[in-house]
């Protein structure tokens, strides 16, 4: 049940079982917008490719001491390894040896609860209002830890041929399996990096039509990507006057990564920031509100 007026501390995993779907971009800019809304936010990078960590300027932490092992396996204080990004936003970086952590977790006691017990439980609510976790694109103990620790999920989708298998596998192998053991909630499906016309047979159109027309998916589509049947009719008639659905491709988003900073701090005038802000509101409210 979504309470539009109640804000409470919440953790969320950005997850899809397919690489290159915008997980890191979504995680960084969602976390930044939560911080912009005057909340204390921790961004945790548990993806072994380290894109979130690199894109925020902390490659040295990715290649240094294996702090993820120290915290998840050895129970050391996560605050000793957290680094600042901007005001109200901190980062727990990824590490190049996450495969070793994955292997060691398999034989650890309470192996799927380590992130919750050692990081999220002691920090969420007391130190941070929100925790955002960037996850690996494959099943495993680290992914299990992310889902159990957050119990909330946001799934980014890019308009390419593999999006349907990505959401299908994520639902079957992550969401449904996890829900057998604990309450895992899908908060939103996030179409991202859109760039094509919608009045023609494009991959952008195919993605948006599919998620907006399926009863099982439509409730999780953010308002910035929600199109009704009348919207499609207006598009095909050349009479659609509203903003094209986001999140759309912008050079500023890629340039922000190269500048090692979130989008808001690189280009505060970018027209896509309002969509990341809507994602922040979805996290605050616990789901999409029409």
Automatic annotation (TrEMBL):
<dbReference type="InterPro" id="IPR050678">
    <property type="entry name" value="DNA_Partitioning_ATPase"/>
</dbReference>
<dbReference type="InterPro" id="IPR025669">
    <property type="entry name" value="AAA_dom"/>
</dbReference>
<dbReference type="InterPro" id="IPR027417">
    <property type="entry name" value="P-loop_NTPase"/>
</dbReference>
<dbReference type="Pfam" id="PF13614">
    <property type="entry name" value="AAA_31"/>
</dbReference>
<feature type="domain" description="AAA">
    <location>
        <begin position="10"/>
        <end position="173"/>
    </location>
</feature>
<protein>
    <submittedName>
        <fullName>SojC2</fullName>
    </submittedName>
</protein>
